[in-house]
Amino acid sequence: MNQSPAETALSRAMIRWSLTKSTPVAETATSWIFRVEQNGRNFAALKILKPLALEEESRGAQLLNWYGGEGAATVFDIHGNTIFMEWLDGSTLGDAVRAGHDDEGTIAIATVVANLHRPRDGAPESLQVLRERFQTLFDTDVRLWPHTSRDLYARATGIALRLFDRPTAQIPLHGDLHHDNIISSDRGWLAIDPKGLLGDPVYEVANVFINPERADAVAADPRRIAARADILAQRLAYPRKRILGWAAAHAALSACWDLADGNAITGQLACLPNLLSAYDQAV
């Protein structure tokens, strides 16, 4: 019987890394994920990348490997389209926020960011420049946006252009750092699934402001926006106005991605007016 591509890659990985048991965990748009065992004792994860997502996911895997386990899950080895890495089965920061612990969640994110942004040599060369990541925002036809929200798109796009016109340090970025991409472990909170970008370090916290999923009321609350900005500015020494600027720009970019995919943008539209207002008030 012919094996599927995932089964073939799994079989090869089991042999390559002397694994003894595999259990399917999830299939996403970009990968198949298995929990595997070594000698019946230690758990690990195999992430097998799908062909259509190989370029972006490979960038993320190389960056995850470069982090060396500091603030992120440890990568043991990468071969072809398969990543052999640390198994994490703790709760996510999203769970903490949905349970009412948003300040604690934001503090944890600041700690993770500080670990991810530690100076390291030999950064991967394949990282995507942040300006390229934002091309969807700049190319989107404003008529795709609801009529009553087109001013939000215009204002957020203008902020994004101003941010890119005022360059800062360019460093490797996780690029998709949100609450449900941060998992608890015996080593603390650890990030997973980076996109692998290169750009302004302040952008790293932008995604925080429209997350976590199933907590739109928290993300859209002006008091929570202010508290998140305060905590991140204080703990990471980032300019508060720049934090809020990237947050608004990213919310609009996220909406453009969803519109292109035919998805609703209810969550982004709930957050964006309050993010823009907070940005306008920030000094």
UniProtKB/TrEMBL annotation:
Domain of life: Bacteria
Gene3D superfamilies in UniProt: 3.90.1200.10
Pfam families reported for this sequence: APH_6_hur
Protein name per its UniProtKB record: Phosphotransferase
Species whose genome carries this gene: Devosia neptuniae
Taxonomy of the source species: Bacteria, Pseudomonadati, Pseudomonadota, Alphaproteobacteria, Hyphomicrobiales
